[in-house]
Amino acid sequence: LIVCGKFGSEHSVAAISATNSLINLIVQLFLGLSIGSCVCMARAYGSKDADKGYRIVHTSILLSLVLGVFLSLIGVFLSYPLLKMMKTPNDVIHLSRSYLVIYFLGLPFSMLYNFGSSLLRATGDTKSAAEKINDFFAKPEMKATGWILLSVVVIAVVGYVVFRFAKKHIR
């Protein structure tokens, strides 16, 4: 939003801002769930129980993907009614809906990233590449849908890499 605010149009900023409350609610839900995985992994890692750690990683992958797909489908179909309930202005509601649909389609990847990075934090690995990749590819002339597409692609790639690394690192 900050970068879009500096380089994007007023409508793009308004469209993204209209979705903030809903997206923050979803992100906080993910973080709460991923903290549970983090606690379980930290206990398994601390007790050097590789089998338990292996099961936690695979359960977290399954949980993140199943919940991500479920919430993605619900979000795609309910994005317009949710925006209407939130009293989104008519001049930006369609751009906000486009932004939300793209966000919801990327939800499984975002969940994968959140759970994977949480598992890595439980083992002491706290570095994140998502911000560096996002900064590298961001272009000032992008509109609201361009920013969310970039975020989804970055989170998808980083989510995949994080889980591949987590599976090797924790085993």
Distance between termini? 38 Å
Q: What ranges have pLDDT less than 50 throughout 5 or more consecutive residues?
A: none
Task: State the secondary-structure class.
Answer: mainly alpha
Count of separate DSSP helical elements: 7
| Helix and strand run | HHHHHHH
Look at the structure and give the mean pLDDT: 77
Number of strands: 0
Our Rg estimate from Cα atoms comes to: 17 Å
Quick one: overall form?
elongated
Main sheet: strands, sense, barrel:
none
Helical residues, percent: over 70%
How much strand? under 5%
Describe the structure in brief.
With 171 residues, the chain is mostly helical.
Q: Can you tell me about this structure?
A:
By secondary structure, this protein is an all-alpha fold. The chain is 84% helix and 0% strand. The radius of gyration is 17 Å and the shape is elongated.
Task: Provide tags for this entry.
7 helices; 171 residues; single chain; 0% strand; mainly alpha; elongated; 84% helix
SSE inventory with pairings:
Layout: H1 2-7, H2 10-46, H3 50-85, H4 93-105, H5 107-122, H6 130-137, H7 144-170
